[in-house]
Amino acid sequence: MGEELRLxxxxxxxxxxxxxxxxxxxxxxxxxxxxxTVIAAAISEIARNILMYAKKGEIILSLVQNxxxxxxxxxxxxxxxxxxxxxxxxxxxxxSRVAGHEYDRETGTGLGLAISxxxxxxxxxxxxxxxxxEGGSRFAFELPAAEACAAVA
Length: 153
Ligand SMILES: Nc1ncnc2c1ncn2[C@@H]1O[C@H](COP(=O)(O)OP(=O)(O)OP(=O)(O)O)[C@@H](O)[C@H]1O
Ligand SMILES: [Mg+2]
Known about the structure:
The chain contains 4 helices and 5 strands. The protein has helices at residues 12-28, 33-54, 112-122, 146-152; strands at 4-9, 57-66, 69-78, 126-131, 137-143. The protein has a 5-stranded antiparallel sheet. Helix 1 runs antiparallel to helix 2 and helix 2 (33-54) runs antiparallel to helix 3 (112-122). 35% of the residues are buried. It binds adenosine-5'-triphosphate and magnesium ion.
């Protein structure tokens, strides 16, 4: 599928690198500067979560084809504590935090994923989370190019 960038996330500088690479890939795909910012912001949130809850993981960036326009796909994978299946539906709600884990004492406001969902959906993309059977978490979002999406709608 052409370009695929695998970026290890284990420190703050990696989060910065991932958001810069995401912005660059979005530019290649033809996204507007505003959309590039949305993509960079959402990458930042899921990468920050990797650091905070799993300590390390990986962000995978790739281009996807949507009709005759391109889109950007972002996947975040870690082998951290994972998310209990019954809490998955609530993750993207404002102020929701998974309770009862050791990392519960980490300070977060529970807004990162809610904001990411809002801005991704505003730009006709989708974002979702999965608990991996082997443990850990997988977050993904995809932003289609605006024209292709309008044709589908
Ligand atoms: N990679 C992950 N592994 C395990 N749990 C996660 C992961 N990412 C998010 N979570 C859980 O989802 C909750 C919501 O994440 P979200 O990013 O929305 O808020 P936050 O990280 O708590 O605070 P904020 O991002 O606003 O600083 C987290 O509190 C955490 O319980
Ligand atoms: Mg967060």
